[in-house]
């Protein structure tokens, strides 16, 4: 499919007096790329690109983002429209299937999500084996990996069963997340209910208790839908690239997504939302709400500290998701009649950073994680579950990318090369001569 985007233009590369013509590709939104797929074969050279700053690892039809303009679209639809008008389940369907669902398709998909919500009872016993303070991301990644032992039929012919696998994962990861929270509190598990929508069901499993029934509020359900939609995909980020790389070895979907969950855990990626809250709490408790010391530390070249929730590999302007979340944050707090000093600190920090030369020069703007934690906190989700929430939101994107990779006629196992800079070949030294 990518071949239809190859233009008549070529880039010239001169090595050792010989000129090579490399095809130029222009993507559907005008993104320009030099096609080096034949480079090593033709020239003997590879390219070196640490952190893949300039490398397109695949062609994709799922998500487009423009880091300079600050725009983001899933399957061609603007994130603002989806966040305003859709539920998370509709967006999950869109990402996995490529088109927005009709009423009938949505009803069928929702029915599957309800049908697959239960966990195998043997899996529930896993929770008893973790220490009470086990990181929820560790529990989540290992339990998702274990799903393939409980549902092996899904791994034998994955492409045919992709609908079932997608629904199973979306539904069961939600149950695993809520159960891990209940276990960490030592409270009885609250089982999923068929009569509740996806987000209402999750909130109910998290917060209902035999002594204090949980009252599901539409505003909270709407806020959760919005947050999950905003996290649902972000093209070739670290965790999605991990899912694709692991899946490229023809590993089943569950194992690939388990690897993605591990990648997301990192504080430079999905773990940032938890780190933001910890930073804001520290500023509140130990600095009396004064952000200046943190800003100075972030600017100090001798201090490894970074202002968490700022900066992005691709966005060099405002992250469009951040704008939506910031607005939602104000709305949720107002609706729930909560006054959170951390929101004031966050706004103060944003203001200082946006006017500081260091941040302006480096195009460091608040990212998606900067305000999301304040909403999660307002609806009762604790800090150590924030990255799990991110994983729940990112699931449809991971599934869509795995599916796209699996079906790609140009698919190849992911296997980068390297430039070796270690010792040259040398004689072996027996142990008693070392
Ligand atoms: N605070 C202070 N300085 C920063 C920050 C920050 N948050 N982010 C980048 N910089 C500085 C770097 O020190 C560097 O400065 P220099 O040119 O003087 O050396 C410059 O900005 C460029 O930074 P890089 O690390 O090269 O940028 P990169 O694109 O590799 O990193 C990243 C992007 C990892 C997101 C980075 O900005 C960061 O660490 N941010 C904080 C963690 C965070 O919020 N992560 C969540 C990202 S969103 C997501 O994954 C969902």
Question: Layout of SSEs?
Answer:
Layout lengths: L5 E10 L2 E9 L5 E3 L4 H5 L19 E4 L4 E4 L2 E2 H7 L2 H10 L5 H13 L5 H4 L1 H4 L6 H15 L2 H4 L5 H24 L12 H10 L10 H14 L6 H10 L5 H12 L7 H15 L5 H8 L20 H16 L5 H14 L2 H5 L7 H10 L7 H21 L28
Antiparallel strand pairs: 1-2, 2-3, 4-5, 5-6
Helix pairs in contact: 2-11, 3-11, 3-20, 4-9, 7-9, 7-13, 9-10, 9-20, 11-16, 11-20, 12-13, 12-20, 13-20, 14-17, 14-19, 16-19
The protein binds acetyl coenzyme *A.
Describe this structure in words.
This protein is mainly α and 434 residues long. Helices cover 51% and strands 7% of the residues. The chain has 20 helices and 6 strands. The chain has helices at 39-43, 79-85, 88-97, 103-115, 121-124, 126-129, 136-150, 153-156, 162-185, 198-207, 218-231, 238-247, 253-264, 272-286, 292-299, 320-335, 341-354, 357-361, 369-378, 386-406, and strands at 6-15, 18-26, 32-34, 63-66, 71-74, 77-78. The strands form 2 sheets. Strands 1-2-3 form a 3-stranded antiparallel sheet. A 3-stranded antiparallel sheet has the order 4-5-6. Strand 4 (63-66) and strand 5 (71-74) form a beta hairpin. Helix 12 (238-247) crosses helix 20 (386-406) and helix 14 crosses helix 19. The longest helix is centred in the middle third of the chain and has 24 residues, at 162-185. Acetyl coenzyme *A binds next to loops.
